[in-house]
Amino acid sequence: MKAILFSLASIGLLSHISPAQTEAAPALAAVPAKLQELTYLTDARPAKDASFYVYLSSASWCGPCRAIMPKVVEQYPAIKAAGGEIILLCCDPTPQLGANYVKKYNAEFPSVLYNLRYSKLELPGLTPPRSIPNVVIVNAEGKVLHNGHGATLLNWQSIIAK
Predict the structure, then answer these.
(1) In this predicted model, what pLDDT tens digit does every residue of 137-160 receive, in sequence order?
(2) pTM
(3) What is the DSSP string of 28-53?
(4) What residue ranges define each of the domains in the chain, with the CATH number in brackets?
């Protein structure tokens, strides 16, 4: 494709198009657009205008996940106030178990079912975690700002400040 564009440009047919325009431009608001395509476990929906998004992979059957969930729920208002949004990628085997997990902790953030082995959520910046809990923090365009253990979510302010 580049060879064809180069050939056309060299004979002047595309003289009005800069080389930068021939490359695929990143989609603006990539994360918010993808988040609108998901099926959620609860009525909560993500903010479309967040400046950063936190993907938290977690499950009710995971002891470390359960241990940090109260702290994550506690941090959510501050994350929202800073312009962020948490998306819980619930790794429970059924939607009902996932919804119960969210309800148990009174989590108000959006949650989707996420099967670690088979799901292809295709969220910008998301890579399948090696273990849970796992957190990935991305900007609105999907650039990864952080990827690590779920407990690192509690240090979100220093991550975002960088």
Answers:
(1) 999 999 999 999 998 988 899 988
(2) 0.79
(3) TTHHHHHHTTSPBSSS----TT-SEE
(4) 26-161 (3.40.30.10)
